Amino acid sequence: MPTISSAGIGSGIDVNGLVEQLVAAEGAPVKKRLDRKEAELQAGLSAMGTFKGAVSEFQASLAGLRDSETFNAIKANAANEGVVSVSASNQAQTGEYDLEVIELANAHKVATDTFDSANKFFGSGRITLQLGAYDSDSNTFQSNPDNVPVTIDIDPDKASLRDIAVAINDSEAPIRASVMNDGNGYRMVLSAEQPGSDNSIRVQVEDSDGNDGDLSGLSNLALDPIGQRGRGNNLQQVAAASDARVRVEGIDIQRASNDFEDVIPGVSFSLQPGAAGSSTRLDVQLESRDVVAAIEGFVKKYNEMIQVVEQLTGFDPETEQAGPLSGDASIRGVVSMLRREIGTDFSGINEQFPSLGSIGIETNRDGTLTLNSGRLQQAIASNRQEVVNLFARAGSADDPGVTFLAAGEATEPGAYDLDITRPPARGVLNGRALMQEGPLVLNDADNRLSLRVDGIASGALSLEPGTYNALPQLATRLEAAINSDPMFKRNDVEVSVRAEQGRLQILSASYGSNSRVELTDISPSLSRITGLAPGKGESGENVAGRLGSLGGRGNGRQLEGMGPVEGLTIQVEGNQTGNRGQVIFSNGVAARLDQLLGSVLDEDGILTVRSEGFNERLQSIGEEREKLARRLAETEERYMKEFTAMDATVGKMKATSKYLSQQLGSLPGATQGNSKGPGNS
Length: 681
Description:
This protein has 11 helices and 41 strands. The strands form 12 sheets. A 5-stranded antiparallel beta sheet has the order 1-18-3-14-15, with no helix packed on it. A 5-stranded antiparallel beta sheet has the order 23-41-25-36-37. α1 (15-60) packs antiparallel against α10 (589-601), α4 runs antiparallel to α10 (589-601) and α5 crosses α6 (384-391). The model is unreliable at 1-5 and 674-681 (pLDDT under 50). The chain is α+β, with helices and mostly antiparallel strands.
């Protein structure tokens, strides 16, 4: 800004100070207005941030309530934890169950005779290790199809007892070997890695000395439960392979391991060491504490948000000041929408509890909520599903054979009648009825078959040769052989094999029109004893029916609604047709509030837009300040020019006055300023 250093010299006036005061006086009202407006906008922006924070915290409190799984939490306890450890999923069947442990599952353990050294030559040749079940009634051994036999070559240079143990442990055999000194000599102990009667050890030997069953050389390891000592059955049993046996509610149950996962639906329990002969009680109950805590958190955060709104938008009679967001339509709009959702009527879905008020959540005059915990707990105990409907995005069905799977964004909440016109079916291949009675004998030369299931072809399969006492035993072994196929495992293809009315039946595990079983090849002997022949079986069928007023789209066991229930998907079990009750879908308060607040808080939401509006107006205040600064600079420059001109004029006038005074003083008769007047000496 240009200045004149001599301003004021001519007139004696402080021109710079005078101009500064004039410019300040001219800009003061505008600056004051802008300062006041900026303070208001900053306060509004800060208040909007406070409100957004309260809304975000309230939305976070909805996380557990919008998910139906929170309401279905189930807890399982054992009265005596020294007997079993127990856990339960949210799909568990609740109740109290008496449990008695009869016997624990044990792994098979066998040992050699004692030898002088663990490092001297023991025997060379080849050993084959496998697991299976020994049937004492028929004196047969059936290998476990889940564990393929493992053959190990024993080299003469590495044929000590210790070397053989190392070779076994380095192999993929499900058997561990250890060498120990029992005080009388060295013994090798073989232990099955898994317990259960289907995991008994068998060791077949090809001894380099030519005799595979005697007590010399590698034959010392031979273990064939069908044979005799010195003739192929040469290992001593240390611990018998046994299944775990328990009695639940008076029913005897047997499993290969000490872990039980399918006795009580959704409940898993494991027998503890030393539990044989002990009893306990299992208590499987719905857990309500987490639900009550989640709803208490919901009420608390909602009330905190309402209190924040009151502080930001209300009027304080003591200070006689309104809140920074007083009159803000966006805040009023958000709160109004929240209150509307909290007051949603669910009478079209729920019969017993049609609103939040009916379970103890009341709205006060000031807009806050009050929770009656006693009424809430009674509601949960009385009809948990209707409480779920009030809060979560959830579905349920009257028929226990119908399971809610999913709903789409456009699915309308409501209760919809379900009619099934065709049940879902699996692809099936039926064998012919077998007339033979008594044992079924299969030799090892003619036992092959291959299949195509659900469009996936198996490799070459074989059924283990042996004597099968009954058709169900044959079905079990055939099912295991088919399901062990690598191609089927890789593609998640499974079958079940049943013995029905004197014939075998192979069913695909999948349902629907793509479910098929085709026998592509089978050897004559296996065909004869199984009754199965090459050919295509019957294809499965998709479920068909109506969900609501319109038909549904079937895919296997799944039925998807149409029209108002577009996206509503259920799974149907069983063969029952006709009316299957109602399917209920609810978009509960927590789910609806979460969706609403998500739209309010996102980058295009109303609160973000309002915050951006405050920032834009603050930016415009800065622009106005810049304009004011430019205008005042121009005013100052103008004043300086005017006052500088005035100062120069006044300076000239003073110079002229001085000159005239000097000239007048020089005229005759003029009194000199330094003369002495009369009477002066």
